[in-house]
Amino acid sequence: MNSIGWAILFKTGCFCTREQLTINGAKYTVIDNIAAGGFSMIDLVENSTTRTKFALKRITCHSIEDQDIALREIELMGRINSENVIKVIDHAITGTADIVVNATSEVYIVLPYYKNGSLQDHLNLRARNKDYMPEAQVLQLFVGICEGLRAFHEAQPEPLAHRDLKTANICLSNGMEPIIVDLGSATTARVQIRGQQEAQKLKDLAEERCSIVYRAPELFSVESYCMIDERTDIWSLGCILFAMCSPTAKCPFDPIYEKGDSVALAVLSGNITFPDDCPYSQDMQNLILFMLRTNPMERPFIYSVIEKTNDLIGKLESRI
């Protein structure tokens, strides 16, 4: 049985309360809120015995369907074996989800805490200081992201797609290794669309769960009869590398979204331009364009991306 309690703390003469949680016998103290989204919130917590810090993801479920989606996220994290993909430490459910009587349950997922924050945090800091990563460092970081994504695409018994890959969903470990996080949108990669109804359902799901500026073209305009596969993630990967190389730490479609213009039209046009002051090589720009092909059937699979990235790393090393 899961229980939620409160502890009264006195610090520097102030009366404070900190939420206490017990998850499968382990007691945690909530220290701070890290992030909040449409479906969940993430708190920084500390194990009351070991004093180890963790990230606690709380997903509020208004129905059994919501709860099943949250449990599916946990199950998928268990299926993916990669040093570059986040792992579940523990999980539990409290309450009962019932949309009829407006009752909710909450799914707790205990995750590693990465004090270096996200790749987006890191890029923002560098952009403010005009401290751009050397090209070799960008590529080493990027190939780690690719290796994590390969674990999704090689998952058994069938390939998985992350479907919300972006710089904010990549954390940096203590050793500055990239860790793919937030599998809330992850799903079976290969989907056969048969008819307008199925196409509209996938389009609606993408609008709900896939960040607009990293979303692949085929998820904006879903054809009535088509196959959607893991190469949706390759488009997002191209947007990530673009952001890593951008002086403003933004992906190609961030400025369009910020101006209020149509991101869908911009994505479907496939018109990618690099800033005049881009400090990275033509080879790097070509690698980005290799992934940002609007026709998903012309877009590479992750193996080709890793091969090209390693070739570029080798080319840089040969110059030293």
Say how many strands there are: 13
CATH H-tier superfamily of the largest domain:
Transferase(Phosphotransferase) domain 1
Percentage of residues in DSSP E strands? 25-35%
Given as residue ranges, the uncertain stretches (5+ residues, pLDDT < 50) are 1-15
Shape assignment: globular
Fold-level CATH name of the largest domain: Transferase(Phosphotransferase), domain 1
Strand order of the largest sheet: 1-2-3-4-5-7-6
Domain Protein kinase: 28-313
GO molecular function: ATP binding; protein serine/threonine kinase activity
Organism: Pseudolycoriella hygida
Keywords: ATP-binding, Kinase, Nucleotide-binding, Serine/threonine-protein kinase, Transferase
Topology readout:
Blueprint: E1 3-11, E2 14-23, E3 26-36, E4 40-47, E5 53-61, H1 64-79, E6 90-98, E7 103-112, H2 119-129, H3 135-153, E8 160-161, E9 170-172, E10 178-180, E11 187-188, E12 191-194, H4 196-209, H5 217-220, E13 225-228, H6 231-245, H7 254-259, H8 263-269, H9 282-291, H10 302-319
Antiparallel strand pairs: 1-2, 2-3, 3-4, 4-5, 5-7, 6-7, 8-11, 9-10, 12-13
Helix pairs in contact: 3-6, 3-10, 6-9, 9-10
